[in-house]
Amino acid sequence: MNTRRLIIKALAATALTGVAFSAPAWAQDSFPSKDITFVVQAAAGGASDRTSRAIAAELEKDLGVSVIVENRPGATGTVAFAHVAEQPADGYTIGFGPVEFAIAEHLGYDFDRADYTYLAQVMNSPVVLAVPANSPYNTLSEFIEAAKTTEMSVSNSGAASSFAATTFTLAKLTEAKLVGVPFDGGAPAVAAALGGHVNAVTAGAGETASAFADGSLKVLAIFAEEAHPAFPGVPTAKEQGYDLTFGAWGGVYGPAGIPDDVKAILEESIKKAASSQTFLDAITPAGILPVYKTGEEWKAFVDAEAARYAEVLAP
Is 73 exposed, middle or buried (0-12, 13-18, 19+ CB in 10 A)? Predict the structure, then answer.
């Protein structure tokens, strides 16, 4: 239920009963009554940041308070996750929960999925492998065959990211010499490829679509079941003989133990935000696909993905 509805209900109740009503006293007990902090685990400019800022802007409109986006990159997102987990479970600190929620625990990071309240999944950005425009490779097969004799560096947004997992799994499947190079976020990982500092990059569709459109990156494969509308003519990895699918999905979460009434307000507001035209206009041009799951559905999905990554990342 949003703030406007609560106000209308409260005023109606006062009129019917004649009970004295103090707006300031009511405001102190309602949620939200102060600014909300939205923590992003990656540097500004990537898909996580873009999605978070678009959601935060819509939450501000609906909830009537400021929603302040705060970037806390580092340690493949676990710096931000730990920060959110340590905040009071009152709904005033929430964050963007990426696919690393299903991966970090398998790579030795201090991370427990049970430390969080899951509010909603809002997006997916299929993983792509791209090379600089002047690279001699034009297909995934050409790149892999070359990497069987020459070591290839492949940048990614963090050591525990789905992008790093894609490189690791592709190397394991093909015996190619692919070496992941982690950065703090998708934007700097893509920048490394654009600058010619690495041979390739594995990143989200949302982080490579503009560089593909202007011709500065060649996307060799999409690790999804279907082709992506932002990359016309680019085949999936599966279509090229590599049966691998990886996505950089994400949603909104908070510390464990958010009260049910506060959680319900946040869930309803996030659902409205994720279906708004403003949100769609902000993410889809960048190649990010809108996906909505309730908090309960998303939690089940995260658990299933964690089980899948346990197998994928096994030595």
Answer: buried
